[in-house]
Amino acid sequence: MNFAGAVLGNVRRATSIAAALAILAVSVPTTSQSSSEFHQFLEQNIGLTQDQVASLESGQAVAEVMPSRVTDEAFLFAVIR
């Protein structure tokens, strides 16, 4: 396998893991969490803007590229509500 193939494989694996974790985190029931707490979490911890949160509340999917400590990794957070 060449270098580009190895990097692409690592990016795909990291993206798959990040997507699975994001889906798992959002699919946990939030009955004890108010909508404003959820919005605050998305803005402070994920880095979504108020416009993105409003889009989410209107039923649109929202995705955000998350920072990585390693240059050959890519993380993506996606949520649908």
In short:
This protein is an alpha+beta fold and 81 residues long. It contains 3 helices and 2 strands. Helices cover 56% and strands 12% of the residues.
Model description:
- With 81 residues, the protein is of the alpha+beta class.
- The protein has one domain.
- 56% of the residues lie in helices and 12% in strands.
- The protein has helices at 3-27, 35-46, 50-57, and strands spanning 62-66, 75-79.
- A hairpin with an 8-residue loop joins strand 1 (62-66) and strand 2.
- The radius of gyration is 15 Å and the shape is elongated.
- The termini are far apart.
Itemize the secondary structure elements and their pairings.
Layout: H1 3-27, H2 35-46, H3 50-57, E1 62-66, E2 75-79
Antiparallel strand pairs: 1-2
> Rg, please?
15 Å
Q: Give the averaged pLDDT, no decimals.
A: 74
Largest sheet: 2 strands, antiparallel
Look at the helices and sheets and give the structural class: alpha+beta
Low-confidence stretches: 4-8
Strand order of the largest sheet: 1-2
> How many DSSP helices?
3
How many beta strands in the DSSP annotation? 2
Total individual domains: 1
H/E element string? HHHEE
Assess the beta-strand content as a share of residues: 5-15%
How far apart are the termini?
40 Å
Choose one word for the global shape: elongated
Percent in helix: 55-70%
